[in-house]
Amino acid sequence: MKPFVPVNKLLRIALLTSTAIGLVTVGPAYIVGITLANVTTSPALLLKLVAVSVTGITLFIFLFWLINIGLLNFMEGKIKAFGNHIPRYVSSYLAGFLLMFSIRAAAMSVFNDPLEQQQVFDWKIRAFGLDPGTINYLPYTRIAFQFLIIVFVVISINTVVLVIQELVLLNEKKKRIEAENTLLQIRNVEAANLQLKQQLKPHFLFNSLNVLKTLIKKQPGNAEVYLKRLSDFLRVSVSSGDVNLVKLEDELKLSMDYLEMQKIRFGDAIHFDVNIPYVKNTGLVPVFSIQLLIENAIKHNAFTPEEPLNININGDYDRITVTNNIRHKISEESFSGTGLANLSERYRLLSGEEIDIRTDNSTFSVSIKILSNENRHH
Hints:
This protein has 378 residues and is an alpha+beta fold. The protein has helices spanning 7-37, 43-75, 86-110, 114-127, 139-198, 202-218, 220-239, 248-266, 289-299, 338-351, and strands at residues 245-247, 270-275, 284-286, 309-315, 319-325, 356-359, 363-369.
């Protein structure tokens, strides 16, 4: 896949750096050269020299940026992403030399007066800390010195441009990796949560059908009520297949359907009390969370009409707590304990919150936090 090249961002940086480097490096260099020359020169010539130099270098850097962006966009599609960039670097320097020679030729055509050319040459020498008196003013010496200036400018400016460009690319690559990792984490959370949610349904459906079968034979009236509650419960189960969080009031309705079904099944062996004076309409909880806590209490305790199981569901402005009395079973069954661990893991995946589990010799309680809409996208 062809790597992403942030062309617009690179162009903005090109405009800023081209102007800044032209002003900061070229202008002061010539001014220093004039000062060191200790000669009187016309302001017009000084302004002309600085303006042409700054404009030329600025144009050179910006054109060089354009070439580098073009090379990047072209060559990154033909080599491995962020792999061997040597061909691009070599092409950049070659293009830089070509541009600099072209700009120099255009600039020298502006200074067509031999005296002006001599003054410009003296200023350049002094800008580099050299004494014109020690330089032999033969044509080949002047050409060699001009060539060295071009080499120095191309290598230094090109290196700065490439370093800035690579830093931008590395930053963009880092952002892309972070975005891809975040997306991958979200997908993993969704997959893990879906897998955890699916563990809640099959065993309940099989048990409910067995209870319904028994009720139809022995208590047809209760069987009809039980079937109505089961129908409502399954409707929510099916409709929440792709939902991780539901409104608190919807989860409470689901839990009441479940409790009424268990009440029909166990009769006076189960008592329950729901005390939620304030229902947070915008509050959310994981789907099947309160229902699972009720199911957990029924599954792990022994109860009879003489010694019933008491389940209390209490709420305040930010938490729901399900409490039950402990009725140890005479014959301990082997339970995997996945129900509560399941709920704890779902809370962690969806919101980063932990559930609060408390127990003593007589009671067992689990408190869960009411989540906000912000947790929908956690």
